[in-house]
Design goal:
It is a single chain. By secondary structure, the chain is of the alpha/beta class. It has nine helices and nine strands. A seven-stranded mixed beta sheet has the order 3-2-1-4-5-9-6, sandwiched between helices. Strands 7-8 form a two-stranded antiparallel ribbon. Helix 4 (about 70-80) links the parallel strand 2 and strand 3 (about 90). Helix 2 (about 10-20) packs across helix 8, helix 5 packs antiparallel against helix 6 and helix 8 runs antiparallel to helix 9.
């Protein structure tokens, strides 16, 4: 298990610290709110984590059904999103269990969550990809997948063949691809190395410290499907 999977499953505070330094220019917020109509919508969010994606739209929607496979992440999200607790319903559900849900939504959104499942699932990856696509587009009018196109890199590209396969499948199914920059910003390169290294590993940490980076480049892909 990689450092990032260990962090996600066990260390919500470190993960929250990481994502709170991400996208310091608020490009994700700007994109989502200029592209998607959120007002009074019913939303299903998969892999809610500590609520970083949710914060971009929660004030506008009517209801959010929030899912994650880690209870400690949901507990942290409840703290971070406590102002909107009256409009969020949480459930511990693995992304593999989407089929078990009976809910229908106006919008389904996931951020940096489905990609982890795709990367982990070696034996049945193609079936997993198709399941994630089919089970979401039949449950919502608008489906939004947000995934990485590289961290601490100079240009956007899928980090590895596994995610490349996933992203190509989305485009082939009719998802429209968008690319934004969601760079991390820290108060010092020491802080950057500690936090980024805690999630991405020693190689990332050593590179950041050696180059004394306080801003870490990050590219994010957003794939949107509209059944209209």
């Amino acid at each position: 298990m990689s450092d990032m999977f260990k962090v996600y499953q066990n260390y919500s505070d470190l993960y929250d610290e990481l994502v709170n330094h991400e996208d310091y220019n608020n490009n994700l917020y700007k994109f989502l709110n200029s592209t998607i109509q959120w007002k009074n919508k019913i939303v299903g969010e998969f892999g809610i984590g500590t609520g970083r994606v949710t914060r971009n739209y929660i004030d506008k929607v009517q209801k959010v059904f929030a899912y994650d496979n880690a209870q400690h992440m949901i507990d942290k999200a409840k703290q971070n999103l406590s102002v909107w607790s009256d409009k969020i319903e949480y459930a511990v559900i693995d992304n593999k269990q989407i089929k078990s849900l009976e809910n229908k939504y106006d919008i389904i959104i996931e951020g940096w969550s489905f990609g982890h499942l795709v990367v982990q699932d070696d034996e049945t990856r193609n079936q997993t990809i198709q399941m994630l696509i089919e089970e979401t587009i039949k449950r919502a009018t608008t489906v939004i997948f947000i995934e990485t196109l590289g961290t601490n890199v100079e240009s956007p590209n899928p980090p590895g063949e596994k995610l490349s396969q996933f992203y190509h499948a989305l485009v082939n199914k009719g998802f429209k691809e968008h690319i934004i920059e969601t760079d991390y910003k820290f108060s010092s390169y020491e802080e950057a190395g500690r936090i980024m290294g805690g999630f991405f590993g020693d190689s990332m940490k050593n590179d950041i410290i050696q180059r004394k980076l306080e801003i870490i480049k990050e590219y994010t892909g957003i794939w949107i499907y509209n059944d209209k």
